[in-house]
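If you are new to this repository, start here. Below is one unmodified record pulled from the training split, so you can see the exact layout before writing a loader.
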Amino acid sequence: MAMFAQDALNPGVRKREVFGWAMYDFANSGYTTVVLTAVFAAYFVGGVAGNADWATFAWTAALAVSNFLVMLVMPTLGAWADLHAAKKRVLLLATAGCVVSTAALALVGPGMVTLAVVMIVASNFFYSVGESLTAAFLPELSRPEALGKVSGWGWSFGYCGGMLTLGLSLGYVLWAQAQGLPASHFVAVTMLITAVMYGAAASVTFLLLNERAKPQSGRVAGDDTLLASWRQLRVTLSKARQYRDFMTLLACAVCYQGGVAVAIALAAIYAEQVIGFKQQETMVLIFVLNIAAALGAFGFGYFQDRIGHKRALGITLVLWIVTCIIAALSTSKGMFWWAAAIAGFCMGTSQSAGRAMAGLLAPPKQLAEFYGLWIFATRLAGIVGPLLYGAITWATDGNHRLAIISTTVLFMAGLVLLLPVNLQRGREAALR
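And here is the target side for that same chain:
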């Protein structure tokens, strides 16, 4: 608990509660690390779809469908959670859904494309709902001036969880390969390891994290159902001009998170298809990437509170552009390792900084709703980035280098949209 400084927390918030909140980042990072990045993505393309021309596009399309469903549901669900003070209840349901559908991926074998797509759509949907709701607790726990620091605690702790889950999976994969077992066997076991780790670590969150919000059914006239939540969301969107800095940040997030989504969903595919990494080498690569991400999120969290969230995010976007260029030019594993190291640092810092900025610009009584809008933007990014990448590879007979260099456009656009964001003006609007 020593890493959690009491002076960074709101009055009445105990360190153990922040630990419980950070444990959810610890829990769900195993899903993104093992399922979306290191293991199942490459297995889907090479093992399930048999390296078909459409395989990479099918993977990105499955993620796009899942993200589209999140975009449809999450803003209204967030408004409902605010009205009913039900963030923790909905988080519990989302966690159960992700754990079960991740475990079901163990049933996927070569040629079972439909089952793989359905389970990826379901698991990524539930993961995204959980990610949004746990982020909505951040401003309740942290003082406004320490949002970057506390967000960084969660992200860095999360990458530690990702490394633990990936480390256990890597250990099993190496053992299974030594026994001559096929990928269909050891990939299935890694899915079960990921599901168990997710459920076990998340249980700590539900034991320690409190639901601090109070029901607000009187805030919107009408019945006490999802219809009232939809009305509240419409009220918020009708007042978008009052929250112009938050809305500009959302547009910025659509762009740069699109590039981040490419790194998460396609890093293993790029490493194996272009650079020539083997399965175990890819897992080691992602493991080291997580170390860099954890150090970046933790250390840069303190730095961003000092220099400002906007400037910190701007620095990471420039580094992302450099990463894409190095990756596109890489002709050896050693050169690609440099790109992966920078990407790892940027991964933690850019996502932590964005989450902190959203918390600063969100009205205190509408946290789940505004983080629902934030997740809407990031999931739109999750459609745009990977689909753009997948479409380019399909149209160019698998030219991954052209696809990765095209991703720099997303980070450049994010940098341009970040410039007009005024955090002080946005914070004042949120408090009004």
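Two things worth knowing about this chain: Residues 147-178 form the longest helix (32 residues). Residues 13-211+234-431 form a domain with the Growth Hormone; Chain: A; fold (CATH 1.20.1250.20).
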